[in-house]
Amino acid sequence: MAEAVVITQPGRVELSEVALPDLGPGQLRLRTRVSLISTGTEGIVYTGRFAPGTHWDQWFSYPHRPGYSLVGEVSDVGRDVTGAFRPGDRVVALLGHASHHVADANLCTLVPDDVSDEDAAWFALAKVGFVGMEAAHARVGSSALVIGVGPVGQMAVRWLAASGAAEVTVAHRSGGFRLDLARAGGATAALQDDLADGLPGLPAPAAVIDCTGNPDVLTRALAAVADHGRVVILGDVGDPSQQRLSHDLIVRGLTVVGAHGRHLLGEREHDIRRLFFRLVASGRFAGMSGLVTHKFTPHECAEAYALLDAGRSDTMGVIFDWQ
């Protein structure tokens, strides 16, 4: 048996015993060390704030086992697993918040010794940020605006900086420590602004990455980007029908593209995880210190999700410590 976090219905979460399958060929048995809450996605599922008929409605039903950013320790190795994995190894995998897992070995990636559990736990949101950076066509010397510097926005900022972007501006309406973390991660300018009146006093960037999940932001992103620029929708909205296009799209020849973690799969996903670990270990993925703001034991899961519902803007990385 294992213990798992379960959202039983909107607004209610508990730690429950769940069955653990037998170890099969090509699989690993894992003991969880830490797991990172995806505050945007899991917040929407926890509150049930998504519209009927949307992709959210198709993906999730209750009871639901949330989570997809887990660092585990290999406790046993199944038959036919290659020598890449041994008991005691640390791995990351897209698995839910639970004390133990049995997972296919080909879905797991080794964590290097010089990367901490807390830093490694960002691998899944780092992938989302990478997809956004790639969709923005970032390159050496380019410019970009990141709107919303929650967990995904923080990862997008760091990828942009690592890619050699010359100007990385961030905007976040609540400002405060989130802007400070973005500066530490490579942002060259930071605005406490919701951009309702445009981008104040700064050149229009070649790309805008909307990480907010707020449907009102799309028209502001379209207004802020340079002519013939790209707007990347990276924050997933609970009700996409509330998003609106503006005249900027046609008049100024803009490109709007959606980006999602599901766009990066297979061996390339492992490659990006390994690249993330190398950049973190070398210090080139800057400003990781301070990204984890809250830690909870799994038995405190109700308190963790209540915090995200009532005061998400006061959090950044929220971790379950299973050790």
From TrEMBL:
Per the UniProt entry, what species is this protein from, by scientific name?
Actinopolymorpha pittospori
List, alphabetically, the Gene3D superfamilies matched.
Medium-chain alcohol dehydrogenases, catalytic domain, NAD(P)-binding Rossmann-like Domain
Pfam families in alphabetical order: ADH_N, ADH_zinc_N
Spell out the protein name for this chain: 2-desacetyl-2-hydroxyethyl bacteriochlorophyllide A dehydrogenase
**Residue ranges constituting the Enoyl reductase (ER) domain according to the UniProt record:** 8-313
Family designation:
Belongs to the zinc-containing alcohol dehydrogenase family.
Required cofactor(s): Zn(2+)
User: What GO molecular function annotations does the UniProt record carry, in alphabetical order?
Assistant: metal ion binding; oxidoreductase activity
Question: InterPro entries from the xrefs?
Answer: ADH-like_C, ADH-like_N, ER, GroES-like_sf, NAD(P)-bd_dom_sf
Q: Domain of life of the organism in this record?
A: Bacteria
